[in-house]
């Protein structure tokens, strides 16, 4: 991984009055570019082959400039162009997944957040060490040969649910698993899925205070998964199984949510524990992150995954959410990222939020 010292050396040669915000043209780029522009930054879209035409339909979110590559794997080859434009890159799920974790952590361009978190987020074994070390209740990990009820099988990395499946016994597991990919098996928890969108600032002092900085709750969502959210209209689970139709969990969109207000203390407590443990393990997770959870009928919250970056569920809230509006009207996660960079520049603390 590129060193913090090298990144700060690069920043030292930047014209800080002309910082640019850059990201890959996918995932949550519309709100990242929109938020950056609202805070006065120039924007750069990184795209493959040619600029996506849909940006023409959304002029407020269209990047000021596109940098074109033949493949996402070629992004390291445009480092000099990004540095020449005083760029700070914003990681998101597609950016990290398409480029690859190993290439991203070596990218010689200042990045918002702590790159060390990607190792803990992308490896589900390390992710469990992190979350359980924070005192978080997770679904139990299951050995394949000990499956005796519904389990969820997931592959490592940001896959958008692709390839995930439910198995009820070892035979079903063997039938569907991809043995050449790293996977984890969790007990299946019955309840309602909630995705909590937080923001951790190591710089601010006013708000929900942690040992260092503050924690903010910006929004919540639930994911729409194909075909799991519609499949049972065709028949009962037994009928579907007999017809050879199996549920899939590819994320195709998102639905807005708010939680009952009595759950907010627990929701903040979960976010606080995860941030505090990250400070101990790898120097802290900075900026947006998402706890992916199931809320049971006993009002317990089980955390089955963490995304330590901006998630696509925040795209619902380009003009604010019922929660972020209570911080600042019209505040999106993309805008909040730009605000943190702008504030860090003004107080001379870019070193605390970039890596």
- What is the distance, rounded to the nearest whole angstrom, between the alpha carbons of the first and last residues? 10 Å
Radius of gyration: 21 Å
How many extended strands?
13
Q: What's the CATH superfamily of the largest domain, by name?
A: ATP-grasp fold, B domain
- What oligomeric state best describes the polypeptide chains here? single chain
- Proportion of residues in β-strands: 15-25%
Overall description:
- The chain folds into three domains: 1-111, Rossmann fold, CATH 3.40.50; 113-137 and 190-355, 2-Layer Sandwich (D-amino Acid Aminotransferase, Chain A, domain 1), CATH 3.30.470; 140-188, Dna Ligase, domain 1.
- The chain is of the alpha+beta class and 355 residues long.
- The chain has helices at residues 4-12, 29-38, 79-84, 93-99, 101-105, 116-122, 124-133, 170-176, 237-242, 264-282, 333-346; strands at 20-24, 42-48, 65-69, 87-89, 151-155, 165-167, 183-187, 192-201, 208-209, 214-227, 249-256, 287-295, 301-307.
- Helix content is 28%, strand content 23%.
- The strands form three sheets. Strands 8, 9, 10, 11, 12 and 13 form a six-stranded antiparallel beta sheet that branches.
- It contains eleven helices and 13 strands.
- It is globular, with a radius of gyration of 21 Å.
- The model has no long low-confidence stretch (mean pLDDT 92).
- Strand 9 (208-209) and strand 10 form a beta hairpin.
- The longest helix has 19 residues, at 264-282.
């Amino acid at each position: 991984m590129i060193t913090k010292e090298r990144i700060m050396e690069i920043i030292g040669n930047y014209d800080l009055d002309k910082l640019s915000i850059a990201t890959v043209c996918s995932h949550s780029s519309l709100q990242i570019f929109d938020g950056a522009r609202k805070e006065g930054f120039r924007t750069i879209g990184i795209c493959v082959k040619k600029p996506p035409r849909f940006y023409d339909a959304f002029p407020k979110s269209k990047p000021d400039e596109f940098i074109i590559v033949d493949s996402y794997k070629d992004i390291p080859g445009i480092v000099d162009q990004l540095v020449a434009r005083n760029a700070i890159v914003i990681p998101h799920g597609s950016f990290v997944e398409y480029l690859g974790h190993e290439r991203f952590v070596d990218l010689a361009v200042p990045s918002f957040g702590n790159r060390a978190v990607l190792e803990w987020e992308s490896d589900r074994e390390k992710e469990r060490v992190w979350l359980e070390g924070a005192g978080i209740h997770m679904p139990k990990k299951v050995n394949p040969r000990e499956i005796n009820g519904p389990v969820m099988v997931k592959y490592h990395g940001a896959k958008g649910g692709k390839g995930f499946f439910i198995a009820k016994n070892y035979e079903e597991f063997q039938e569907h698993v991809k043995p050449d990919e790293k996977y984890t098996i969790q007990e299946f928890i019955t309840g309602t899925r909630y995705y909590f969108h937080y923001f951790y600032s190591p710089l601010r002092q006013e708000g929900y205070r942690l040992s260092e900085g503050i924690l903010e709750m910006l929004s919540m969502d639930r994911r729409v998964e194909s075909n799991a959210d519609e499949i049972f209209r065709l028949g009962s689970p037994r009928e579907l199984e007999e017809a050879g139709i199996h549920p899939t969990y590819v994320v195709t969109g998102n639905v807005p949510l708010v939680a009952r207000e009595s759950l907010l203390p627990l929701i903040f407590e979960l976010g606080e524990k995860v941030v505090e443990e990250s400070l101990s393990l790898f120097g802290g997770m900075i900026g947006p992150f998402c706890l992916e959870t199931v809320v049971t009928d006993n009002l317990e919250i089980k955390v089955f995954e963490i995304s330590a970056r901006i998630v696509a569920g925040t795209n619902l809230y380009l003009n604010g959410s019922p929660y972020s509006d209570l911080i600042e009207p019209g505040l999106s996660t993309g805008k909040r990222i730009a605000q943190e960079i702008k504030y860090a520049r003004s107080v001379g603390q870019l070193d605390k939020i970039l890596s």
